[in-house]
Batch of 2 targets.
Target 1
Amino acid sequence: MLEGKSAIDGFSVVSAGGASLKSGRLVKVAKLLRSAKTLWRRGCSGGFSPRKSDLNFAPSAGPAFDSVLAKIKREAMRRKVWFRLSKVERALVDLTLKCVKQPRSPRLIDVLASIIVKVKAFLAGQLQWLMGQVGKPLAMKLSKIAESWGNKEARKWAEDVSFIRFLTVMDKTFQSLAWRH
């Protein structure tokens, strides 16, 4: 073994990104190397790395790619909100995708629904979330006040997305968040 580096048969093995491969992946890499199913290339640092196409570390019994849960997970990972979920929530979704074709347990369905709602809220973005938390209540309050003064068209204000967005952006909560970034 080389000092401080992962090695197979005396060669240091690095990923395509340049990081040393972990020991769990080394087993698969060693099998690929010995079975001559992969091509290796020597990097500029002297280490060998396998082709990316040969390193498919996904489990063989993967998720059904057309399921709603799999689509939500892919979108969350693509938009980098997947890791905002707790480790337990991520594990629950992963295990459900691997082991359950159609969830039937009411408890599992409720928990998955709450996770999906949380992911959808993360995907919606901060402005959409603030519109629901700040702008919508303000629009409802202002429309009720205007209705009490006799404005019959004011009832539509509470559902007008443009008005809700305007109230959200003009609110001091949004202003304080905007100045932080």
Target 2
Amino acid sequence: TNPNIKSGDFFIKEGNIIAGVERFVVNCTKISKENIQNKLLLHEYGNFYDDAYIKIKFSKFIDNKLIGTIHYFDKEKLYNIKKQLSKTIDVNFIQLTLPVINDSTLYDKSMQVLSLMNLNNSYTNYIHGGEDFSYYLQEKKGMYIFLGVRDEKKGFVNELHSPSFDLDDSILYLS
């Protein structure tokens, strides 16, 4: 479900849909802290919707450790960035999720179903990083599809992982 898409509409996209996420932890000394922070504050390579997308984002310092995330689609580019970072700083990586990349054949079939059912594909730039569905795609071809649940008249406007999230149950049959 997606509270940013009108209730009853879908968001279906071929290819890259949700970036994979890795956490990094850099062991810092007080001397290197500012230097490392300046190097890693925020680097973005490529367009979020292409295979080459990589985003390195500094989050915070905790107990003399710099913690951040890397969002990516291309595993080879991720490998190269990790290799390069490891040459210059003491860093550990933790895989959180893999990228979600929809199968093109299933995308075509999904679009045919939407057309037959006279439903809308409300394409949006709303894409977040991190989805455990990515692990299923390692075993089988699949499609990650968002069902819109936003209904301002009924007050269904809150984000998915908030205590105020709600939706109109009557639209669930569409999915």
